[in-house]
Design goal:
Elements lengths: L4 E4 L14 H12 L5 E3 L4 E7 L5 E7 L6 H12 L6 E11 L3 E4 L8 H9 L5 E8 L8 H5 L5 H23 L2 H10 L3 H5 L7
Parallel strand pairs: 1-4, 1-5, 5-7
Antiparallel strand pairs: 2-3, 3-4, 6-7
Length: 205
Amino acid sequence: MSIRLIVGLGNPGREYADTRHNIGFIVVDAFVQARQGSWARRPEFEAELARVRGVGSQEVLVLKPLTFMNESGRAVQSLCRFHRLAPEEVLVVYDELNLDMGLAKVSITGSAGGHNGVQSLLAHLGEGFRRYRLGIGPRQPPEIDLKDYVLGRLTPTQLSTLKHLLPEFLSGLDLLLSQDVAAAMNRLNRRPSSDDRHRSKEEKL
């Protein structure tokens, strides 16, 4: 079943811009811009919505919930009901604390792993949605409160690293749209990122 909806997870508002928890927003913003799309505020879905060209002439919906992270599933469920989308047709892009900054993994099943946005999706949408997890770890300093870390702003070095990796992350989205999810997952999960291959000590958190 092909991907018809891409969801970026994050928190709305300027105070959350460039925070680690908003990497999902950052990546889908870049994806929509690369495909010359534009965002429209859709109050009925409690979200911003864009329509872009996917594979061939197929249209892909891109969604940013405006419900705040812990209620993301509400907005996604509303849109899926309206367009009659199955969970298997949804790809969710979000931050993953258990992956180092610069790494990306694709998965289909699993727990929320402490991520409130994913927990909300599981509660409102159920299992089956595809997960594009982008690393924001390791937590530094290790004793920092989890909420403070994920809601903290990316450092200048991390922002630079993310900017460098955006084309690679967008390439991963293209692959997920154009191939069978299992085949794309196999390729993406085996491919080391350029940041992982070339990261110097100065680029580490």
